[in-house]
Amino acid sequence: MTQKVPPLLLLGLLAGALLAPASPVRADSLDRAALVQELCGDAGAMGKAGATLVTTAAAGSAEDREWAAPLARAAIDRKLACDEAGAMLDEGGLDAVTRAPRAAAGTPRSPLLSLKNRPVFELADAAFALRGSPAVAQRTAALKTLERRPALIPEGLLEGAAAAESDAGLREQIDTLSQTAALNASDPAARIRAIGRVAENPSRRALTRISALTADPAYAANPDFRTAVDDATRRIERGIAIGDTLATLYNGLSFASILFMAAIGLAIIFGLMGVINLAQGELIMIGAYVTWLVQQGLRHAAPGLLDWYLVLAIPVAFLATAGIGIALETLLLRHLYKRPLMSLLATWAVSLFLVNIVRVVFGTQNMQFETPFYVSGGVPVIGDFIFTWNRMFAIAFAAVTLALTWLVVRKTPLGLNIRAVTQNRDMAACIGIPTRRVDMMAFGLGSGLAGLAGLALSPIYSVNPQMGQNFIIDSFMVVVLGGVGTIAGTVVAALGIGQINVLIEPLWGAVAAKVIVLLMIIAFLQWRPEGLFAVKGRRK
Amino acid sequence: MSRTSANLPFTLLIAVIVVAAGAMPALSGTSFELSRYLTNAIGQLAAFAVLAISLDLIWGYLGILSLGHGLFFAIGGYVMAMYLLKHSFVVTGTVPDFLQFMGWKEFPFYWAGFDVFPYAFAVAVAVTLLISGIFGYVSFRSRVGGVYFAIITQALVYVAMLLMFRNDTGFGGNNGMTGFSVLFGWPMGTSGMITALAVASLLALALVLVACRRLVGSRFGALMLATRDDETRLRTLGYETLRLKLIVWCLSALIAMLAGMLYVPQVGIINPRVLSPELSLEIAVWVAIGGRGHLVGAVIGALLVNAVKFWLSSAAPDIWPFILSGLIVLVVLVFPNGLMDLAKLRLTRPMGPRRMATELEEARP
Description:
Number of helices of chain B: 16
Distance between the termini of chain A: 76 Å
Helix content of chain B: over 70%
CATH architecture of the largest domain in chain A: Orthogonal Bundle
Structural class of chain A: mainly alpha
Number of domains of chain B: 1
Order of helices and strands of chain A: HHHHEEEHHHHHHHHHHHEEHHHHHHH
Strand content of chain A: under 5%
Radius of gyration of chain A: 35 Å
Number of helices of chain A: 22
CATH topology of the largest domain in chain A: ABC transporter involved in vitamin B12 uptake, BtuC
Distance between the termini of chain B: 33 Å
CATH class of the largest domain in chain A: Mainly Alpha
Shape of chain A: elongated
CATH architecture of chain B: Orthogonal Bundle
CATH topology of chain B: ABC transporter involved in vitamin B12 uptake, BtuC
Keywords (chain A): Amino-acid transport, Cell membrane, Membrane, Signal, Transmembrane, Transmembrane helix, Transport
Membrane topology (chain A): Multi-pass membrane protein
Number of strands of chain A: 5
Shape of chain B: globular
Signal peptide (chain A): 1-27
CATH class of chain B: Mainly Alpha
Largest sheet of chain A: 3 strands, antiparallel
Largest interface: A-B, 50 and 50 residues
Radius of gyration of chain B: 21 Å
Strand order of the largest sheet of chain A: 1-2-3
Oligomer: heterodimer
Transmembrane segments (chain A): 255-276, 283-302, 308-328, 340-362, 392-409, 442-463, 475-495, 507-527
Structural class of chain B: mainly alpha
Family (chain A): Belongs to the binding-protein-dependent transport system permease family. LivHM subfamily.
């Protein structure tokens, strides 16, 4: 099925092989009169006519197909009336050959299809319908009929149908069937070519299809066939392995992106003030809820912009969570400046409050999010790995956040102050840096980043009042592992923990992944108690 | 100095506990008899008070905040539940729910011998010491402290919770373990048993209180306070603070384990929720509200918070989290030493025990 056989040659072959010598066929087109004559003949002649119809459906010219299509249907429905002048189609009273109206000559007789011939005619009918029917539903139904007997489908039919098909979903189904049909073709060379083509797109489905061929008689009998199957199996397995690895890395990368965004704020605040914000997870949750609110607002105010809510929510989510963070710092943490353990409890109280206030206001159910076009679907790459846009969105978002955070910390006066206070608070105060103001701004920055994390994960994870708790302990571990107040440490630790989690998960499960990550971190702290990229300084 | 200033409240508290423990069985049958619900609640409160003391010992007296003490509480609770189930199985032949749920024919091999209480108790002690010992050693050796230590212990208890939520571990999975029918050969759920458990919990509380009191009043206790206030100086003076911290840490874990063993027969169920980070954080809240660094404060804080929680969880369950968070903020901002500040305010004593100058040290890397 891989190569188009020229119709000329094909019909020439047909003339010799299929049609009896008594009914010569013009090499370049269908002998319509002879076909009709056969249709009115005995079971053997009708069988030949059926085969001709199938071949016409696969390789005939457009006019021939259009002409022959009603014949198959009429034969099945017994609407073909054979009389002395040839045959007539009952519908409209047309002559079967010329399609001109005429009266019946003599007593018409409707030939009955034998049990053996019936499937051939049904196949021909479905083949005509698939190629010529105007309605998608009819073409789909025709494809279903063809799927029942993939071995009988003539070469060229499905390719022709797929090329002309306008409906993408149906075209895909046709392609799938076309591969199956080719694998089950009678010509060994065609089968081997088909195997090669299936192996070009490795996936678990392709593997199932190819490995089913090892049970085929040809596998034992034909060494070429066996080699082809074995080769294809190897190629597909390699493709699947590569695809799975890429998929794992990709998932790990997207998980790491979320972790990074959750943890970078924590790390900055911890480095600066020695405070771990236990409400960071809830700020993520608030960010996601703000995104949802923006979506609902757009739905009412500007439905045309609804698709862009993820983008429009960026400043809103950042400012809302940054505002909460600044309020938290001003009202609570400022007074706990020298008591970090108490500030741990205080931020927990805030997290408790936020979870429950959201629960009271919005309920505990998952929030419904629209899926804009830029985060839906994906590109199949290799094997079963699909490069999905929603995860890509999170990754790209984290990359941009990383770049911006780096710019803020490295290139702005605020960042300079943050670094100065992180290194030595008292000295920074001495040279006139307003340390309390820096604390407040840094806390706002860190909280705003958590809100952005919530925005980025709303297309991937379910959004409910408890969602923050799923990330918070992992992001603590990122801070512990990465060290205090360094962006590079946070990036490396987030990548490491994200990847290790998804690498171990398929082997021993999600729980084991968490256990192992925790044990590794505890062991790691033996070696470097201050984290990966600790700022050099006196150890207390 | 701290001993004299807190002597009166301590004596009073012990007296109240002992009198309550004596009065409950004495009053049974009379018209002053407490309801079963109240008796049971008192017993549970006593178990929580023991748990609060265990955390106060390391947080209040050593300056190490653990946000994972639920882990040791759960070890005690789970071992007790295993004992109760195995014991019930041996006595009455009741097959535990979780075995039927998992479709298992018999107990996993590590359940062997759990019908003998001394063995179960020894296992609980061994497991607690093993986990607290190893974790404490590696943490204190690399001088992980302060906020770092707190969040690593929180991760520890969180991971343990995930582990216990699995059904194939043989510890009841997410349904936990319940359906205890026999304790030491006596049927559970009778009035007598409820009273007995409550009395036992109260007596255990009194015992733990007195023992801890003696410990913190001793020379060892002075070293603990010194470690809390300035560990570097103590090390410079030649004291081995690693061993000291490790001993107190393991002791604290054992007390928490004991609280778990007292708690489970009284509630009649254990499930992985006792391992949720929230419970462990709540213990710290009890201690903070009562006033850390005071054994009496920890007990009163645990009793007070849990009494309010018991009451509210039936009256208005939705507002409890708001009240709790409000309480925390209040304590943290206005009464840094918890109820002890209130007491001092009223009695107009000079600032009694040494001020908490502990935390600045810990979290400055």
